[in-house]
Structures are given as structure tokens and as C-alpha cells.
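Priority: medium. Attachment 1 of 2:
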């Protein structure tokens, strides 16, 4: 396998793209509107794709899936995301498995856990 991508079918395409660019700080690789709106964003070693429902890949929303994203400094990312207008669930807290983490709410009811590895496993 060559590359890993996560695809979001967004009920509000512009809001979801704004979440990933303005709140999470991702860079847009490319966008298109032919055959339905789509944006591809660079995310660490992979990519995140956001599409409007018109591309025919399914319906918005997610059930039973959560994303986790490793960061170098959970406290700094928490401050940056709050300053950018993101909705977070509490402050970064230590977990028994050695991660300091917090949760960011995304559009359409899904969330992203940002974590810093504090104690190597």
C-alpha cells in the first residue's frame, strides 16, 4: 500500500474545509468543483479529503469512528486550536498509557483526539 487517506463527506462542505484549514492548520493540496466539490489536504504522512455529498461517495456523518492525531506539544496545540475558534472538550490531560490528550469537535458529529506521547511505550 502506498498512501493512507481519510475521506469526509460533509453536510457543510465549506465549514468542514474551514475546520481543517483554519482550526487544524492543514494545507490545501488541491481543490476542484468538477463532478462535485472536493478538497484534498495534507495531513502528516497522509491526506484528508473533503467532498460534498454530490460526488456520490455516500452521506455525511460518521458512527463508531474517531480520529487520533499525534502532536509534539498537546498544551500548545490546545491553545492554538482554541485561539482559532475550535471547540475542545476540556484541557489536555494525562492518560494511564502515557499520552497527554484532548478532543476537538469537528463538523457532522465526529471528533479528533490530539495526543502527545509523554511516556514512551
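Attachment 2 of 2:
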Amino acid at each position: 500500500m502506498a498512501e493512507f487517506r481519510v475521506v469526509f463527506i460533509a453536510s457543510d462542505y465549506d465549514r468542514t474545509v474551514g475546520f481543517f484549514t483554519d482550526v487544524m492548520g492543514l494545507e490545501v493540496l488541491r481543490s476542484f468543483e468538477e463532478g462535485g466539490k472536493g478538497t484534498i489536504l495534507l495531513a502528516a504522512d497522509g491526506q484528508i479529503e473533503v467532498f460534498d455529498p454530490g460526488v456520490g461517495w455516500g452521506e455525511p456523518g460518521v458512527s463508531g469512528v474517531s480520529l487520533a492525531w499525534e502532536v509534539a506539544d498537546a498544551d500548545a496545540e490546545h491553545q492554538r486550536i482554541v485561539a482559532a475558534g475550535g471547540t475542545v472538550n476540556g484541557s489536555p490531560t494525562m492518560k494511564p498509557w502515557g499520552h497527554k490528550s484532548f478532543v476537538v469537535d469537528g463538523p457532522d458529529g465526529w471528533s479528533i483526539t490530539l495526543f502527545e506521547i509523554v511516556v514512551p511505550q
